[in-house]
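We modelled the chain as a single entity of 373 amino acids. Its sequence is:
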Amino acid sequence: MTRRRLSVTLVLIVLLVTLAYDLWQTQKQSAAPAAPAGQNADVSGGKPIVVYFTDPKYPDDPRNHRDGLDEKQVALMDRARQTLDVADYDFDLGNVADAMARAKNRGVRVRMVTDTDTLTNAKDEKVQAAFRRLKEVGVPVVDDQRPAIMHDKFTVVDGEWVSTGSWNYTDADTYHLNNWMGIFRSRELAANYTAEFEQMFAGKFGRAKERNTPHPTLTIDGDRVQSCFSPKGHCADLIVDTIQKQTRQSLYFMAFSFTHDGIGKAIEERARAGVVVSGVFEKTGSQTQFSEYGRMKKVGLDVYTDGNPWTMHHKVIVVDERIVIAGSFNFSTNADEDNDENLLIVEDESLARAFRAEFDRVLQQAKHPPAKS
């Protein structure tokens, strides 16, 4: 064989090998579970901190159950390439379960912790269907197995992204309840939530956990952020301290459950000092002797019960329209001393404006509730 023929033959062999490899890659990708279009989209719009709110419509129409927080969460989960850790109290969204399954099938390490009452809720088929989907693909789920509750609602993606808020991964939380979800891009904040997750995934819940948050105070794009986890973080003390030392002009709050006397007294003290105070309580439980609603009403604070025909589920305080205190943490002793909870205190005026706008919307509904059909 001449040198020229040998060179041509070698070129043909290389081309055939390349074509065979490309065909194999195409078949491999076709066999992989498909993620929805836009899976690589930046769900935060390029911002390191972004917040979303639910928009309940009454009366309910299932056709309106779209474009909600669940789809933001799915888009975030579809970004995962290495790790996906989920801590969620209540869980019945099929599309979120599917996103977790897709991540598992493309080689992401996916893990979950939840509350035992949710995992063993045999009466709710949607809950069991969501957990079955995870079981089918081998996602490990650890439950707390104790009377107090694992009340967190957060997700950590690739050690870089954190979603958290008052929003459980359920259809009702998405389309009936007033809730918020924030997405934060910060490796330091992700490290905090990962440290908390690792303890729970290892079976340590509540008071069995250690206080091991690596970055209790950090900055995100110049904004000061404090993160706190119950019960070892003494989050109620952190809230009281922020109210007492930082509040000079205004304080607005929305509270699903507000029974913590220390937080209530701190707010009343600032009101006596001339701070403008206004708040909305979830109606359920607000008339009991344990709620701060009656005491605040008695001393003349501008407080209301909510007008959502379902549930106002926020746990939010806005201080001087520049600081936001919010998370899964209800303003209660149980949240502070027994439950697994997370809380953020963020000094960001744009974020505070967004929460103030949500407060104004909830307040207007409290003053003018829709007529129940």
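As a brief sanity check on the tokenised model: The chain has one domain: 49-367. The chain has a mean pLDDT of 91.
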